[in-house]
Every structure is written in C-alpha cells, then in structure tokens.
C-alpha cells in the first residue's frame, strides 16, 4: 500500500495518526495494574490453558488411531 503513495501522502497519514494519538487519554500503569491483575485472576478459573480441557469436550482429540497394514 505504501508503494502506491507519495512521500507527502504517507506523511499526511502519519500526521493524522499522531493527531489521534495525542488526544488519547493516558493512565498510569500503577493505577491500571491492580485492575488487570484482578481481571486475570477472576477469569483464571475459566481459562482452559490453566485448568485444561475435558477429554469429551476437546475438539482436537484424535478420533481414531492410525492403522498401518
């Protein structure tokens, strides 16, 4: 996409993006970190990567073995 655009058009797009980003509200990590930790800990009981997937609900379980004759 950038190959089809002139340098001026690219710089114009970058300027538009920077104008959007400068107005984005910033929040300190020290404020948001406890909220993120609470969210992750609250969802950990439902997380299949932490507690695993039951064999009967695992869509990637092999249906049958391979038979070589």
Fold topology:
Elements: H1 7-22, H2 29-43, H3 48-51
Explain this structure.
The structure is a single chain. The chain has 69 residues and is mostly helical. The protein has a domain of 41 residues. Helix content is 51%, strand content 0%. It is built from 3 helices and no strands. The chain is flat and about 65 Å long. The mean pLDDT is 88. InterPro entries: G-protein_gamma, G-protein_gamma-like_dom, GGL_sf. It is a lipid-anchor. It is found in: Cell membrane. This is Guanine nucleotide-binding protein subunit gamma. G proteins are composed of 3 units; alpha, beta and gamma.
Enumerate the spans where pLDDT stays under 50 for 5 or more consecutive residues.
none
Mean pLDDT: 88
Instruction: Tell how many strands the DSSP assignment holds.
Output: 0
Number of H- or I-type helical stretches: 3
What sequence of helices (H) and strands (E) makes up the elements?
Answer: HHH
Overall SS class: mainly alpha
| End-to-end Cα distance | 53 Å
Strand content: under 5%
Characterize the biggest β-sheet: none
- Helical content, roughly? 40-55%
Q: How much is the radius of gyration in Å?
A: 24 Å
The backbone outline, from C-alpha atoms, is flat
Membrane topology: Lipid-anchor
Protein name: Guanine nucleotide-binding protein subunit gamma
Family: Belongs to the G protein gamma family.
GO cellular component, one term: heterotrimeric G-protein complex
